[in-house]
Amino acid sequence: MDELELLKKHWNKSSTNYPSLNKADLYKLINMRSSSIVKWIFIISVLEFAVWTLISFLLDGAESLEKMNNYNVEHIFYPLTIIGYVVLFIFIFLFYKNYKSISATDNIKTLMQQILKTRKTVKQYVIFNLGFMCVSIVIGVYIELTNNPEIQTMLTRIESEGANNIYIFYLIVVALSLLAMAIITVILLGFYYLIYGLLLKRLKLNYKELKTL
Questions:
Q1: Which domain holds residue 57?
Q2: What is the DSSP letter of 18?
Q3: 44 occurs within a structural domain
Q4: What's the pLDDT tens digit per position in 103-124?
Q5: Are 101 and 115 in contact (CB under 8 A)?
Q6: How far apart are CA 10 and CA 82, in angstroms?
């Protein structure tokens, strides 16, 4: 306790050597930091969108397109793809809008509201991506089970061996699908935490600093 008091006294004595910042200066500093963080959120979302789009084009070759045409599932594939791209474009636009709003903010209360709004948008973005991934896996498994000739042949053979066998097979498929979704969700959550989570933590610190003002 004595050492702490000595440290406080030393700080008070030496504080004149440091430039003092008034409330307006602190606000400008926090505003600049918040604007920079939200700008990076926007940039990273655009880069992420570009990377996933490139990967999908690389993996989606002529064989996959021919398979989709044979399955006659264009009425499922194309709407799902369009919905995914439209929603992602909307989120990217919202990130850009949040960045412009924070950059133009001129008071503490509005800046705090924009920080909360940005954090909420990022969380919604992550939830959508995880949910869309799970829905895509479920639809993909359903399409394979109902359209793949090899799987249809296997199902016929399994069903002929006993009525309970088909239920066991579907139970295994559901279990494996849930396991795949769990693994991918954990991987994506780790990815999003490393990228967006750290940025959101910095925004949260800025919000706390604004509350003290």
A1: 23-212
A2: S
A3: yes
A4: 877 778 888 888 889 999 999 9
A5: no
A6: 63
Report the distance separating Cα 13 and Cα 10, nearest Å.
5
Q: What residue has token string 């939200």? A: 38
**Residue 147, in any domain of the structure:** yes
Domain count, the chain: 1
How many residues belong to the chain? Answer: 213
DSSP 141-184: HHHHHHH-HHHHHHHHHHHHH-HHHHHHHHHHHHHHHHHHHHHH
134-156 pLDDT per residue, tens: 998 999 888 888 888 888 888 88
Q: Which residues contact 211 (CB under 8 A, 6 or more apart)?
A: 112
Please give the single-letter amino acid code of residue 3.
E
- In 3D, which of 197, 47, 53, 187 has the Cα closest to residue 122? 197
Residue 166 inside a domain? The answer is: yes
Is 2 a domain residue?
Answer: no
The 10s digit of each residue's pLDDT in 46-65 is: 998 888 878 777 765 555 66
